[in-house]
Design goal:
Helices cover about 20% and strands about 40% of the residues. The chain has about 775 residues and is an alpha+beta fold.
């Protein structure tokens, strides 16, 4: 009896001990095997459960009714229940033939709350804490909670909030749960008050500061926030400074130290950057070595490094990239080019050997498109220029990526080359896309310098049902130009890539709204069908035809030229125009171009099937050149010419207009050119020429932010006509001025302040103008 009682007490003692100890406690007692007499378990009772179901415990418990209970079974049961991680305490009590399992559950996290947080999104913080194992429903772990609080503090430090304090409060709630509150006192963000360079002699501190995003506070810091001190931003800036020196030949350049001092109130930062410049190196020689595939002459043409040149890391990188790209065009997907420099430190010269290793030639086994949950596979694949079962071509692969990006359906396109395991001459191409919403409902209201309050609304879907077809309905209520349009575009009307564009429209135009009290307007309704045929990757030719009805609503104050046209040809004209056009877009960006060009030409002919017979031709050319970092010179020229057939005049409702933003800034919109002799109102003309020169550069204090820029301009142009009841036009009109361009959330916004170069009697001027839309 004494031995049996001792065994019972040993079983009861298994609580609040580590599972490794609990698992071996019986074995550590020599009396246990003799103290507990094995018996058949008649019942098992679970005590202490609050959230966990009894069935869960029975599922993990190795003891079942009908089993023989032994000391080993007890140890195994304790070990199994501790291993679940559900319990802080496990105790097994034997009463007769009944086994009692008494447990104390671990507390769970009932909720995680934040207070005082403004710098971060709370959802983002919740997601970050979940990644380290802290989330609602998980078991409470004080060490993990402390780690989470430290991680929050670290996040604030990376954004320059050195005074931030994080207080963690843990509150017990019902059902053995814990509520966790992270209370944050963010305090002020530290501003970078001073940045000093030490040891720089070749370049001034101002020049080096221009290479950095981090800056001291200036008048535009509220927008750029470049005066805030996140550590990762400084790391990137130091790399920019290092690259600047390497691009100017300073191969021995190094950053010896970076000292950061925080003011006692933790509001200000002071940086001291010590650099070692060394001497600039010139290139004494540059040659190719390795396996050149018997294409040495062709590859040598790509080497943009010549003896006597100052060493430039950018030019070296561009050369190696060009060589790898050329080898990739021949199918060598894994080609490498390594630059091996030999330094002559006494004469400060460097001899470069470009070691070429084409590796093996491969062909593409399979192209996998992933991430397109809504867009059909064929919509992506028809943009690919790299084909399956053909030799790998890096040029075609890059072109494929560009074409998929230009679709506008994806926020990100990633193209990777994956070797086929076990096959040395095959690769797979993974095209991973991240879709974005392509539909939009855009109600809006705005204020225009010419149209005052403008209401607009639009419904568009650029990727209807994932087919790549677009459909848009737009309404505009501007006083001078009101529109209702429905447009449908099928970019692959045929498998060869012929585009079909269908337009239905209703427009009213009041050309005299600002110059007189006339209610005269031109009402146009119609539709057209166009086809775009791609002749190359950048060239498209358009053919189309349509029907259009133009109605001239004249009144007593309407200019005499319009009245004469109505008297001769009636108020209503039915037109059946055919069109042909061509465009080439070789810009690096349609939104913020910095290099490249764009050209287009269009011709429209009013056929005898309608009541008007005429022709008109329009041409436009744009060219962009970046001659310094952030500085872009843009040139734009456009012209139009129209005339009638068979002795008929050019329809007056097809006239060109000029003046205002988009043509000659500083002049009132549509005010240039011929004027009616009776009312002196501008009536437009059948010939138009406009030219623009624009220099764009970063707004001072914003670094190289391309979304916010300043520009200066010089515009010239005019409109001429043949109407006998008109006067004016003469020579070209010129305007100059400056402005601000901003890629706003509602589109490209342009503000300009323009002045006439020479004032002419009768011309009308408007200094301040703005528009949302095109580059010029």
């Amino acid at each position: 009896m004494q031995l049996k009682s001792l065994g019972k007490h040993l079983v009861e003692a298994h609580r609040l001990v580590p599972k490794s100890v609990a698992a071996t406690a019986f074995a550590a007692q020599g009396l246990v095997a003799e103290a507990t007499t094995p018996f058949v378990v008649q019942d098992i009772r679970i005590e202490g459960l609050q959230r966990i179901e009894p069935g869960t415990v029975f599922a993990y418990l190795p003891i079942k009714r009908g089993n023989t209970f032994t000391d080993d079974k007890a140890s195994e049961a304790i070990r199994a229940l501790y291993a679940t991680g559900f319990f802080n305490d496990v105790k097994i009590v034997v009463e007769g033939n009944v086994v009692g399992v008494q447990v104390v559950e671990r507390a769970a996290i009932g909720g995680i709350e934040f207070s005082g947080i403004y710098e971060f999104e709370k959802d983002a913080l919740t997601k970050a804490l979940r990644s380290i194992g802290l989330s609602q429903g998980r078991y409470y772990d004080r060490a993990l909670v402390d780690r989470a609080g430290q991680e929050l503090k670290r996040q604030y430090l990376t954004r320059g909030y050195y005074a931030a304090e994080v207080t963690t409060t843990v509150t017990p709630i019902d059902r053995n749960r814990m509520s966790i509150l992270f209370a944050v006192d963010e305090g002020p963000s530290a501003k970078t008050r001073q940045i000093n360079f030490i040891g720089n002699q070749a370049f001034s501190s101002g020049t080096l500061l221009d290479e950095m995003q981090l800056s001291t506070p200036n008048w535009f810091s509220w927008y750029t926030k470049n005066d805030l001190y996140p550590k990762d931003k400084l790391t990137g800036d130091l790399e920019n400074v290092r690259s600047y020196y390497l691009n100017h030949g300073y191969l021995e350049f190094s950053i010896e130290s970076t000292q950061v001092q925080v003011s006692p109130d933790k509001k200000d930062m002071y940086l001291a950057i010590t650099v070692h410049e060394g001497q600039p190196y010139t290139i004494s020689g540059a040659r190719l070595a390795g396996n050149l595939l018997d294409r040495e002459a062709e590859l040598n043409k790509l080497v943009d490094i010549k003896p006597g040149d100052r060493f430039s890391a950018d030019r070296l990188q561009a050369t190696t990239k060009a060589l790898v790209g050329k080898l990739g065009e021949y199918g060598y997907a894994f080609a490498t080019v390594n630059a091996v420099p030999q330094l002559d430190q006494e004469r400060h010269k460097v001899d470069l050997t470009l070691q070429v290793d084409p590796s093996r030639r491969v062909y593409v086994r399979r192209i996998n498109v992933v991430g397109n949950t809504r867009t059909r596979d064929e919509v992506v694949r028809r943009e690919l220029r790299q084909l399956e079962s053909s030799w790998f071509d890096s040029n075609r692969l890059a072109l494929s990526k560009d074409r998929i990006n230009r679709l506008g359906y994806f926020t990100d396109v990633d193209v990777t080359t994956v070797p086929v395991e076990g096959t040395p001459d095959q690769v797979d191409i993974d095209v991973k896309v991240a879709e974005k919403p392509t539909g939009a409902i855009t109600p809006g209201a705005g204020f225009s310098s010419t149209d005052k309050v403008v209401l607009s609304a639009g419904v568009s879907q650029d990727n209807v049902f994932g087919t790549g077809t677009s459909l848009a309905v737009n309404v505009n209520t501007a006083k001078t130009y009101r529109t209702l349009t429905v447009t449908q575009v099928d970019p692959y009307f045929t498998v060869d890539g012929i585009k079909r564009i269908t337009d239905l429209y209703y427009r009213t135009y009041q050309p005299l709204y600002y110059s007189s009290d006339s209610s005269f307007r031109i009402v146009t309704m119609g539709g057209d069908l166009k086809f775009g045929i791609p002749f190359s990757e950048v060239d498209t030719v358009y053919f189309g035809a349509g029907f259009e009805q133009d109605t001239l609503d004249v009144d007593q104050s309407t200019p005499q030229s319009y009245k004469d046209y109505v008297n001769d040809f009636g108020r209503v004209s039915n037109n059946v125009p055919v069109t042909i056009g061509w465009s080439r877009d070789a810009r690096d960006s349609a939104l913020v171009p910095s290099r490249g060009y764009f050209t287009q030409a269009n011709a429209e002919v009013g056929t005898p099937a309608g009541s008007t017979e005429y022709y008109k031709a329009d041409v436009q050319a744009q060219y962009y050149y970046s001659f310094a970092r952030g500085f872009v010179l843009g040139l734009n020229v456009q012209g139009g010419y129209g005339n009638g057939f068979g002795g008929k005049p050019f329809p007056i409702f097809k006239n060109y207009y000029a003046g205002g933003i988009g043509s000659v800034r500083g002049c009132e919109p549509s005010s240039l050119g011929p004027r009616d002799t009776s009312t002196n109102d501008p009536i437009g003309g059948s010939k138009m020429v406009v030219g623009n020169i624009e220099l764009t550069f970063p707004l001072p204090g914003t670094g190289y932010d391309r979304t916010l820029r300043v520009f200066t301009f010089l515009d010239g142009g005019n409109v001429w006509g043949t109407e006998g009841s008109s006067t004016g036009a003469n020579g070209l009109r010129y305007g100059y001025g400056l402005g601000l361009a901003w890629i706003s959330p509602i589109g490209p916004l342009k503000l300009s302040l323009g002045f006439p170069l020479v004032k002419h009697a009768g011309d009308q001027y408007q200094k301040f103008q703005f528009q949302i839309g095109t580059a010029f």
